[in-house]
Write a structure and sequence with these properties.
By secondary structure, the chain is mainly alpha-helical. It contains four helices and no strands.
């Protein structure tokens, strides 16, 4: 696992810090993922590095969800938003210390 994607030791602390920030003005650093809702076939990803990074991000999302919202339903968008902001601050924001 790359140091960039090593789980942060205090996700609850990051979440508390996020709640003290003006994220609507500061923004939240993150990747943009597009979803095709047309039903058209999506070409497979052939780049091993992209697939590996996606797997690491998926693992981190699950890790933080288990710690921050263990009983949340899969469609609980408020809890998902909290988990995503922790992931973003811990791993995409260059100003944050990484674990």
């Amino acid at each position: 696992m790359s140091p960039k994607y090593r789980p942060h030791p205090d996700p609850a602390g990051i979440l508390a810090g996020n709640r003290q920030r003006a994220l609507e003005r500061e923004g939240i650093p993150m990747y943009l993922a597009l979803e095709d809702l047309t039903g058209s076939p999506v070409p497979p990803v052939g780049d091993a590095a992209v697939l590996a990074e996606g797997a690491e991000l998926d693992g981190l999302l699950g890790h933080y969800a288990e710690r921050l919202a263990p009983g949340a339903a899969d469609d609980d968008l408020a809890e998902l938003a909290s988990v995503i902001t922790v992931l973003a601050r811990a791993h995409f924001d260059e100003k944050e210390d990484r674990a």
